[in-house]
Amino acid sequence: MTTITVKGDHVTFQWSGLRSLLAFRSAITVPRSAIVGARHDPKIRVQGWRAPGTHLPGVFAAGSFHRRGGTVFWNVRHRRNAVVVDLHGAEFSALVIEVADVTATLAKLNRIATANLHPTAS
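The structure assignment produced for this chain is given below.
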């Protein structure tokens, strides 16, 4: 599963153990301003060529997958818990992550995306 931590102007997506080994990364940190939105997509399929990463079709996808339109980072075993985080101006164009609580994760990430669209006046 993915642990998401919001600290200051950054959001960190973190994995441990075997998930980090298979993905060749233990964490990805992006600026809050890079988060465009998040959506639940249990039918999403891996596209593109993998480098580096691990892909066992129907079982597990982890790592960087390069395709037209950008590079997508995956760390998913059970697609029913897959959340797609759309990014702009970050290392990846999207993150496809598995989370324990889809509803709470979507609420958290979409609040950040909404705040990016409607920043408070300083």
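Interim note for the steering committee: Strands lie at 3-7, 10-14, 27-31, 35-40, 49-56, 60-67, 70-76, 82-87, 94-98. Residues 102-117 form the longest helix (16 residues).
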